[in-house]
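Hi there,

I know you've been waiting on this one. I reran it after we fixed the sequence typo, so this is the corrected version. Both the input and the resulting structure follow.
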Amino acid sequence: MAPAAFYGIAGEFVRLVLPHTEAHPAALLVSALTAIGNFTGRDPYYLADGSRHYVNEFVVIVGQTAKARKGTSLKHVENLLDLADHEYVQSQWKNGGLSSGEGLIYAIRDGHSQDKRVLIVEGEFSRVLQNMQRQGNTLSGTLRDVYDNGRAGVMTKNHPVTASDAHVSVVGHITREEVTRVMNRNECWNGFGNRFLWIFVPSRSKSLPHGGNIPANRLGRIAARLRQARLFSQNLQRIKFDDGAAKAWEEAYDELSEGHGGLVGALISRSEAHAVRLATLFAVLDLSHEIKVQHLQAALAIVDYSNRSVAHIFGDQNSHSFTQQVLTAVRNAGTAGLTKTDLMRHFSNNKSSDDIRTALDSLRKQGLIWSEARRTEGRSSIRWFHKAAAAPE
C-alpha cells in the first residue's frame, strides 16, 4: 500500500501499533478506518449524482493462509475504540451474527435504539457467504440496501419491520482459498462484492514470540482525538472538495469509473464510491469542513491497493500467461521501452488498464522490468523496460 494511505490519525495509529504486532499494516489501516467510520456516525456525507455517500464501509481482509494474523489487526482497533468510547464498543460492536437479511433488519430496526451505528465483525466470513446461498436468504440484498442508503425492511402482512438511517459497517476475515471456493459467482456480479473493499494480506508483518508493548499514553491521545472527531462530525452534513481536491478528483475519476471487463471488473466497479467515502472520513478526522488533496490521495491509495488485491485474489486462470505476454512485449521493445498506452494498443485494447497495471506491478516486484519517467513534447510518461535493456539515451 502506498505511503499516502497512512495519513492522519489512522496512519499515526498504524505507526504506533506496527512495531508491537504481527498484523499486516494494510489490514491494520483499513480495519481502523472501517471501525472509526462507524464510530464517527451518520452525519457527514458526500453527495454524488443525487446519492449520499456516508463514511460507513464494508471490508474483507483476505489472508494468504490462516496464519496471516487477520484478526490480530482488529483487536488493536477494538482496544483503541474502547479507550475512545467504552459504551460504544459494548453496545454497537457486534461479533458475528450475519445469517439472514431479516436478522440484520431486526438488529437495526426503528424504535429499538436511538443509536443506529452498528459495526459487525465476522471472523469467519466464509459462513456469511455460505448463508447467502441458502434458498430464500435475503442477506445479500439487505446488506446492499444498508450500504447504499441505510434503509431496509421486511414487509410481512402482520409484523412489518423497517430500519432507516442505519449506519452499518462490516469487517470480515477469510482466507484466499476459502473466498475463491465459497463465494458464489452471483454475488460477484450482482453488486454485493463491489460494495466491499477487498484487502489482501500476504503474510504476518513479523514474528513476535513475546508479543508487543504499545505505549498506553500515546494510544490514549489518539483515542482522545477520535472523540474530538466524533463531536466535530455531529455538526457536519454535506462535505465538498476544495478547489485543489476537485481538480485532482477530475483527473482520477475517469480511470476509477472506467468499466473493466470480467469478474475483476465487476468487483471493482464501485471504486469511485469507496474513494469519496474514505476521502470524506479522512477530512472528518482532520476536523476539516472540506475534502483536501491529501485526503483524496490517501483514499485513492487505499482503493488502488484494494483493486490490486481483487486482481490477485479473483484473477482468472489466464492471469499468469497474460503477465508473461506483457513481459515478452516489453522485452521485444528493447531500449525503446513501452508505455501502458503502448501495451493497450499491443493487446488491441482487449485488456483493461487495470489488467496491464497489475501485470506490470507483478513483473516489477519480481525484478524482471523497470520503469523511467520520460518527457516528450512537454508531457511526461512512464516507460517500461526489460531488465536486460540498457538505460535509453
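Quick highlight: The two ends are 32 Å apart (CA to CA).

Best,
R. S.
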